[in-house]
Specification:
The structure holds two protein chains of two kinds. Chain A is mainly alpha-helical. Chain A is built from 16 helices and four strands. In chain A, α4 packs antiparallel against α13, α7 runs antiparallel to α13 and α10 packs across α11. Chain A is globular, with a radius of gyration of 22 Å. Helices cover about 70% and strands about 0% of the residues of chain B. In chain B, α4 packs antiparallel against α14. Chain B is globular and about 70 Å long.
């Protein structure tokens, strides 16, 4: 009770914590940017479908970024996520095609029907993701090797395995893709097309999965003991250890969760594209890191919010679509504006942190 | 525990152990696999000059850009405790500027123009390095995050500089930089690496820069209190890395005779960081040994060439590389070392003579 009173009084004095401040800024900028785009370019931006398209295209990125946010909160990093996603997508497509070497034989022996193949692909996705998380987590948390090196090796391994599994790009059979790409229609958010016929807004199943994961991770970070220890370990490992947090287990769990989520992301990616390709999800890890940063997660650890990450992904894709609609059609503008935007957010964060540092030292 | 007092000379070199062991293992492996792997021959090239040829030369030659970048990366890592992930993009920008200047005079490429082009691309790369450095040192942003900006848009800037084209250049001077100077049997990139090595060796021998960088990396606050300009040192390390990027970019462009912003030195940032880590330098900053990084870079290149020689498809090389990297890092990890030490001690308890040897 006493403790609760104390936190309340602290809150009253300082209305916003860093996490909340950064989160508020991100959401404001996203909403402001979107409204501005609606006013200037109207057209596509006024249709809710635009937002849903963004979600459809980036569902996998949202899931990856959630995992990365967890890892970043513990003060670690995982750059293997993009590679794992691409590998999972490739293996998933091969399973749907029934031509994945040993597994193809296994499937034939079991006589799997189409629906079971999808289940099998999903289970394999989770297993691959878990395997990456398990190995990387063990090496990082228990052998105390620098996470950058291990996950870099993880990325190399995943990217190399894709071409070992199949050199040629693969495409899933259409009959199965029809099942996977079932869209949820939302009539009341629809908009009339050129002929005046109402087209309902469409959302893919992957988006639902992504949203559920965002909520689950949010609850984990906010309410669960493990989630709180992520923050503790990221904030100050030494004090966390002294407070009785199992630092090793916590870091291990963060990487395990991240790997698991990249496995799911790979399956969602496959649901969206239906294709396995060595160049799938290129630079997804850097996009995910950028989204997390825009969302207010600090790479130093201890500060971060998964809701911010979600808006970070949306902000990134809004920038990209604004650039394409605003007539800057040269291919280089998209990434140059993204870079400039990133620069802005990073400087903003730095200023917020410096302000905090000054406050602390003045106290 | 007694590392600092006892056998300090040995401790100084112990960090070179991992890259040396890696190279040694690769050498032994290759000797067993194919003894002719290391044969160095002399052939005549298209210009009729005798030149050295063989896997060993192609390892030394191919690693040139990586070695140069890992030299700069070592400084940045030591001073700031983080890594620059934009080196590949920065090299692409430098290469684009280099080609742009060479193209500006309508095809005629004189030695003066090449020197001017190099100086300009060096200046541009150093300016971008200063941008990264300012973000890191003045604004206190983590290096990986600060350089993520240039990583995201650097290759696009290179594309922009060239106006959306991949121009080619052909001139005897450019091919002399990229392959062989007439009359010199050793590939020019190797010579450039040696020059860079001498430059850094002299820099550390005759200035206190090396010491200052380590001090800033170990404890920035303490360095500042001792009168070292910590912000300036960090900035300087990034500017030096920018210069390294421009040299690497120039070599890369000269090798191919064209600038392709998408593929020039692609993914090299990862290899450069890896070289620093394999070289036994802490990625958290502080003490560093540039020789370790250089050996690490050669080990990485040797591994790649070995895999190519084993007819592994170029797209699959990454997977095998990853396995070797993990094995190397696990071998060098403090926990494994501790366990080995404990096992040794246990064995030493039974045989005191062995323990005595270890202590000496």
């Amino acid at each position: 009770m006493n403790n609760a009173d104390k936190t309340l009084s602290v809150r009253r004095r300082e209305p916003l914590t860093d996490t909340q401040l950064l989160l508020t800024i991100t959401i404001c900028i996203f909403v402001g940017m979107y409204v501005l785009a609606m006013m200037i370019w109207g057209g596509g931006f006024k249709k809710p479908q635009m937002l849903f398209d963004m979600l459809n295209d980036n569902a996998y990125l949202i899931i990856i970024s959630c995992g990365l946010t967890i890892v970043m909160i513990t003060g670690s990093i995982d750059i293997s996520v993009g590679g794992v996603t691409a590998l999972v997508a490739m293996v998933g497509v091969m399973i749907l095609n029934g031509n994945l070497g040993l597994f193809g034989g296994l499937q034939a022996a079991l006589g799997l029907s189409d629906q079971w193949r999808i289940v099998f692909a999903f289970v394999m996705s989770l297993l691959i993701g878990l395997a990456f998380g398990l190995v990387q987590g063990y090496l990082i948390a228990h052998l105390e090797i620098q996470p950058f090196i291990i996950t870099l090796a993880g990325m190399f391994f995943a990217r190399g395995m894709i071409t070992i599994v199949s050199v040629d790009p693969q495409k899933a059979p259409q009959s199965l893709m029809d099942i996977l790409q079932t869209r949820i229609e939302i009539p009341w958010l629809g908009s009339p097309n050129k002929k005046g016929v109402m087209i309902p807004a469409r959302m893919e199943i992957g988006v639902v999965i992504a949203l559920v994961i965002v909520v689950l991770v949010f609850l984990l970070l906010r309410k669960h003991r493990l989630g709180r220890s992520f923050y503790a370990v990221g904030g100050n490992r030494q004090s966390a250890l002294m407070l009785g947090v199992n630092v090793r287990k916590t870091r291990f769990m963060a990487h395990l969760l991240c790997g698991f989520l990249s496995g799911i992301a790979g399956f969602v990616f496959m649901m969206h594209t239906g294709a396995g390709n060595a160049t799938n999800a290129t630079a997804a890890e850097m996009n995910a890191i950028a989204s997390s940063i825009i969302g207010g997660t600090l790479l130093t650890g201890g500060v971060g919010n998964v809701i911010g990450t979600f808006f970070g992904v949306l902000t990134l894709s809004t920038i990209k679509s604004i650039v394409t609609t605003s007539g800057l059609r040269d291919p280089w503008w998209q990434s140059i504006t993204t870079g400039a935007m990133l620069c802005f957010f990073i400087l903003l964060q730095s200023l917020v942190l410096m302000r905090r540092g000054k406050k602390k030292s003045s106290k | 525990m007694n590392k600092n007092t006892k056998g300090s000379a040995l401790a100084n070199y112990s960090q070179l152990l991992v890259p040396l062991i890696a190279i040694l293992l690769l050498v032994i492996f290759n000797l067993f696999r194919d003894p002719s792997f290391f044969s160095v021959g002399i052939t005549t090239n298209n210009n009729g000059d005798p030149v050295l040829q063989g896997n060993l030369i192609s390892i030394l030659n191919g690693a040139s850009e990586l070695v140069i970048l890992s030299m700069g990366m070592t400084l940045v890592t030591a001073a700031s405790g983080g890594q620059d992930i934009s080196v590949g993009a920065l090299a692409a920008i430098a290469g684009s500027v280099f080609v742009k200047v060479l193209k500006s005079q309508g095809g005629a490429i004189s030695p003066v123009l090449v020197v001017g082009a190099f100086l300009l691309c060096c200046a541009v790369a150093m300016a971008f390095g200063a941008f990264n450095g300012a973000l890191v040192s003045v604004f206190n942003i983590q290096p990986m995050i600060a350089t993520l900006i240039l990583f995201t848009c650097g290759r696009s800037i290179a594309y922009w500089i060239n106006g959306g084209a991949t121009p080619t250049i052909s001139s005897p001077i450019i091919s002399a930089i990229g392959s062989f100077v007439p009359g010199m049997p050793v590939p020019t990139p190797i010579l450039i690496v040696i020059l860079m090595g001498i430059f850094f060796a002299l820099l550390f021998r005759f200035t206190t820069l090396g010491l200052y960088i380590q001090t800033v990396g170990i404890n920035q606050g303490a360095a500042r209190l001792n009168g070292i300009n910590a912000v300036g040192i960090k900035l300087l390390s990034f500017i030096l890395l920018g210069a390294c990027c421009s040299v690497a970019g120039m070599i890369g462009v000269s090798r191919l005779g064209l600038i392709n912003h998408e593929t020039l030195l692609i993914n090299i940032e990862m290899d450069a960081i890896l070289a620093v880590a394999i070289g036994g330098n802490s990625l958290g900053g502080g003490k560093f040994r540039m020789l370790g990084s250089v050996l690490g870079a050669y080990a990485i290149q040797a591994l790649t060439i070995t895999l190519y020689a084993m007819k592994v498809p170029s797209t699959d090389v990454k997977a095998y590389k990853a396995v070797v990297i993990v094995l190397l890092v696990v071998m060098g990890s403090p926990k494994v070392k501790e366990t080995v030490e404990r096992l040794r001690k246990r064995a030493g308890g039974k045989r005191p003579a062995g323990a005595g040897k270890e202590a000496a």
